Amino acid sequence: MPSTPIPLERHIAPRTLMLPTHVPTLIFGFIAAWALLLAAPLAAQERAQEAVPQSEDTRFAAFVEAFVEIEEIRDELQIDLARWHEADRRAEVRREADDRIARVLDAREIHRETFNEFTRMISTDADQRRAFEEAVARIRDTSS
Fold this sequence. Notes:
With 144 residues, the chain is mainly α. It contains six helices and no strands. The model is unreliable at 26-30, 32-42 and 47-53 (pLDDT under 50).
């Protein structure tokens, strides 16, 4: 007896994804929960930044104070480098000066990038340069 071919549609039933009605709600809830978990630390950081606003004047004053201290460290470094001729000792003196500079910046809560930005600003903006020179003069007058 010859076999008659069975249509392919009968063997392969169309497969549709039938999710129960609560599954999309669960998925949405899961996504929303993750979004809240990720957003909470960001919101806390923003509140912390708002709680301690640091005005541009305050940052500039901290920069000027740091600049004066760093200038003194660099002057001392030049004297020490002139005194030592051994490469090892000169490298050690440089490391010590770098550490002192890092401590000055940390004490003023200034990053090196911020310090460099202020340095560029006073070298390109005449008004800022004048304000900087006046602030440096005030600091030097009070310390002498």
